[in-house]
Design goal:
By secondary structure, the protein is mainly α. The protein has helices at about 20-40, 45-70, 80-95, 110-135, 140-160, 165-190, 200-225, 230-265, 270-280, 285-305, 320-345, 350-360, 360-365, 370-390, 395-400. The chain folds into two domains: about 10-190, no CATH class; about 195-400. The chain contains 15 helices and no strands. Keywords: Membrane, Transmembrane, Transmembrane helix.
Length: about 400
């Protein structure tokens, strides 16, 4: 481990591990992800779900930016710890604005504008910290300049324009901002970015998956808050936990290990491109899928617990019905893409299962909510088992080849 010449930040080595400071940093994102679910639950509709995914994509970019930075500079030493605490405060403000980011409440600050200004502050702090972290790295500084021009300033302009509108017009401007933001990463290229410690990088992203899965369990608890326990509530809770466990097993027994091994075996720009594709881009569908599914599980628990307004034969309806299976579908398709990018083999079970789950929304509206959750949990368990069995007996080297 070496100090840079300004002794402002401490560089990492290839054996760097996740620090307590980074775990502390993740706490605000626990709340942020919870707020995204609240944004959808307040008025479930296809438009609101798209809006929530836009917000999640922007929050994901904030988290990823500092996951990359924390891989090259220690988060618990020097100036970066102060930057992390500052960013935590800003993201907390962002999280407070999330539930009303598309329906601004009169009488206070403009919550869409607060969201955008704080998002811009996070991106600016990230670029400034990266700039200071490597004063002698000309390639990195050239990449940072390109990133600012292609992936920071244009999206911020589009987000600010969107704040002048509401409803679908605002959403279209913000969708454009996300498209420009993510597309700008390909424009800037991989030269200059570094992944010093593959183990740290993989662990950071595993932790954010755990955070998302934890939020799905919290959502179930919120769904039955202040309601009496019943056998239906216990059954729905068990089914929801089984579903979360299946998604956990798929990631931590298959995806995570193979991806980390592949990342470790690469170097230079190839390592950077793989990290960008598999972790920065393809982990977003995993988190988004869990958040969507969490909405469905929350609504199932609410219905089976509220016997005064619902009976056990009541199905889910509309966008909420789709979110239950659609979220799992998004997760499985993201997982399939990760397997394909990591090993080159075709994950047939995951891909077919993902498409079927995406298309199963209308069927959910035809069966009792509790039955839908139980069937989904069992189906996901079978799909994960089929995929796991196919990979059993293969070494990590063979899986990554």
């Amino acid at each position: 481990m070496a100090w840079n010449r300004e002794r402002a930040m401490v560089a990492t080595g290839d054996d760097h591990k996740v620090t307590p400071a980074e775990l502390f940093f993740d706490l605000v994102f626990v709340y942020a992800i919870t707020q995204v679910t609240a944004l959808m639950a307040a008025a479930p509709s296809p438009v609101r779900m798209v809006g929530a995914m836009v917000v999640l994509a922007l929050l994901w970019w904030c988290w990823c930016a500092f996951a990359w930075l924390g891989n090259v500079v220690r988060a618990d030493s020097g100036a970066l710890f102060g930057v992390l605490v500052t960013v935590m405060a800003v993201v907390l403000i962002v999280s407070l604005a999330v539930p009303r980011v598309f329906t601004d409440t009169p009488g206070g600050l403009s919550e869409p504008l607060v969201f955008v200004l704080c998002y811009g502050a996070v991106r600016t702090l990230h670029l400034a910290s990266y700039w200071l972290s490597s004063p002698g790295d000309a390639a990195l500084r050239a990449t940072l300049r390109r990133t600012a021009m292609a992936s920071v300033l244009p999206p911020l302009v589009l987000l600010l324009i969107g704040c002048a509108y509401d409803g679908r017009v605002q959403l279209l401007w913000w969708l454009g901002a996300v498209a420009v933001d993510y597309g700008g990463i390909y424009v800037t290229g991989s030269s200059g970015w570094r992944v010093n410690s593959p183990g740290h990088f993989a662990e950071r992203h595993g932790l954010i998956v755990i955070i998302a899965l934890g939020e799905s369990i919290v959502a179930m608890g919120v769904g039955v808050a202040e309601r009496p326990l019943s056998s239906a509530v216990l059954g729905a809770s068990a089914a929801g936990l089984l579903l979360s466990a299946g998604l956990w097993r798929l990631y931590f027994r298959q995806l995570g290990e193979a991806a980390e091994h592949r990342l470790t075996g690469l170097d230079g720009d190839e390592r950077t491109r793989f990290a960008r594709d598999v972790y920065t881009f393809l982990h977003l569908p995993l988190v988004a899928g869990v958040v969507l599914c969490a909405l469905g599980m929350k609504k199932v628990l609410q219905q089976v617990a509220d016997s005064a307004h619902y009976d056990l034969a009541e199905p889910l309806h509309g966008a909420v019905a789709w979110s239950l299976t659609g979220g799992v579908g998004v997760y499985l398709l993201g997982a399939a893409a990760i397997v394909l990018r990591t090993s080159g083999r075709r994950p047939t079970a995951l891909a077919v299962g993902g498409v079927c789950c995406l298309a199963a929304g209308p069927l959910v509206s035809l069966v009792p909510a509790l039955v839908a959750l139980v069937v989904l949990a069992l189906t996901a368990t079978v799909l994960v088992s089929l995929h796991t069995r196919r990979g059993t007996g293969r070494s990590p080297e063979a899986q990554a080849a």
